[in-house]
Amino acid sequence: MILSSGERFIHKHFHALTHRNFRYFWLGQCVSLIGTWMQNIGQSWLVLTLTGSPFLLGLIAAMQFLPITIFSLFAGTLIDKFPKKKILLVTQSVSMVLALTLSILVFTHTVQYSYVMVLAFLLGVTNTFDMPTRQSFNIEIVGKEDLMNAIALNSTTFNLARIIGPAIGATMMALLGPAWCFLLNGLSFIAVIYGLTRIQTTPYVRQKKQNVGIFREIKDGFVYISRDKRLAQTILLVTVVGTMAYNFNVLIPVFTKDVLHLKEQTYGVLMSCLGIGSLIGALTMSLRSKTGPKMAVSIVCSILISIFLILNGFATSPYVTGILLALNGTCNILFATTCNSTLQMYAKDEYRSRVMSIYSLVFAGSTPIGSLFTGSVASHFGANGAFIACGLLCLIPCSIIILLYRKKPDSSGDPAGNQA
Fold first, then answer.
1. What is the Cβ-side half-sphere exposure of residue 242, based on CA atoms within 13 angstroms?
2. What GO cellular-component annotations does this UniProt entry give (predicted)?
């Protein structure tokens, strides 16, 4: 009776898990993402230990996202020309080798800052192909009907890992050193690779067109998006929010130290508040995913994210800050999951990977720009000023985009992508 009730609950709220292929992929991600967050915290600690420079730490982060900014558009034109499962086997294997290489360098005491930078850049190149491939692979293993549920479950896993991974990584560093974080992350990719080998699906491979160059294909992707009101508005909102509203790794530590005048423990708690809010948002999307993506959700969340950022700029209490960050985390995930689902569900098959590569560009590829801007404003006007500036520069453009597209005729296609 308990089992049947559990099965009914999963079938109703987490229907993507009823797909065998998705279960293999999702369970592999559950293991691997914890390792990824362990490596993130270990790499930051390693760089600070080697250099003692926050600027050089920020430069590592920029180098890791820079390839996405530069190459994601080219990646999008190539992904659909090959089976996505094979691409993921390559990208996940390369990521494993890079993590194991870093662990060996640290274990043998031969690691240098320049080596870490090179490995971070190579990981960024790998992620340039991995991110849009994973995004567009979801629809092949669950179909359009359960796509939003699959994306929401992936977000749930990501945010659980964001809470669990750093906790394990911090303990591991304290007891054994950061090298073990990199080693365990490298080994965690075995779960994903094994899961991929068990997936059986009919891949979508786009037919190559004669005499069509890569730049023409990139242009065609942009033209296709611009002609669809739903896709165009979504991409523009993601561009603004992705650039201005996701700079918490810069804002929260500075705010904790310079505004709240508190220490590392408070910084950790505030980051957890952000993670808890994100987890709530992901679970909410999982439970409500059957209704499909609603443009109103992404519109409302883009405004709320901006307002919460501005309010954070006026906060002087760690309790108020924690609540605002939790609310922001919830809205961030509702916004990102809705936008991601909208783009995948309403893009034609032959354009989907190009659309998702543009999504990766404006969502993750804008990180270096946003981080540099936020750090510069925080240096001159403090963390309060940076929160307010980011909020205003998110609120004003989003409001303009929303107003402009309300006046445009609806040219959106149906979920099958039958209209550009």
1. 24
2. plasma membrane
Distance CA 261, CA 377 (A): 19
Whole-angstrom distance, CA of residue 41 vs CA of residue 92 = 20
Cβ-contact 350, 157 below 8 angstroms: no
| Separation CA 412–CA 346 (nearest Å) | 8
Q: Do domains 14-200 and 212-409 have the same CATH topology?
A: yes
Note the Cα 259 to chain centre separation in Å. 28
Give the residue extent of every domain in the chain. 14-200, 212-409
Amino acid occupying residue 52 = G
Question: What letter does residue 260 receive in the DSSP assignment?
Answer: S
For the chain, the distance separating the N- and C-terminal CA atoms, rounded to the nearest angstrom, is 48
Alpha-carbon distance of 163 to 170, in angstroms, equals: 11
Instruction: Find how far residue 128's CA is from the centre of its chain.
Output: 12
- What are the residues whose beta carbons fall under 8 Å from the beta carbon of 284, sequence distance 6 or more? 330, 334
Say which DSSP state 317 is in. -
Please report, as a single letter, which amino acid is at residue 128: T
**Token pair in block for residue 83:** 């089976």
CA distances from 24 to 4, 19, 392 (A): 22, 9, 42
Nearest to 351 by CA among 242, 211, 227: 227
Is domain 212-409 given the CATH code 3.30.2130.10 in the classification? no
The CATH classification number of 14-200 equals: 1.20.1250.20
Say which residue, 253 or 95, is predicted with more confidence. Answer: 95
- pLDDT tens-digit profile of 323-360? 999 999 999 989 988 998 888 888 887 888 788 888 88
3-state secondary structure of 19: coil
Query: Residue length, the chain?
Result: 420
197 neighbors 24 (Cβ within 8 angstroms): no
Q: Are 221 and 358 in contact (CB under 8 A)?
A: yes
Q: What pTM, to 2 d.p., does this model score? A: 0.75
pLDDT digits (tens, 9 = 90+) for 224-249: 998 989 999 999 999 999 889 988 77
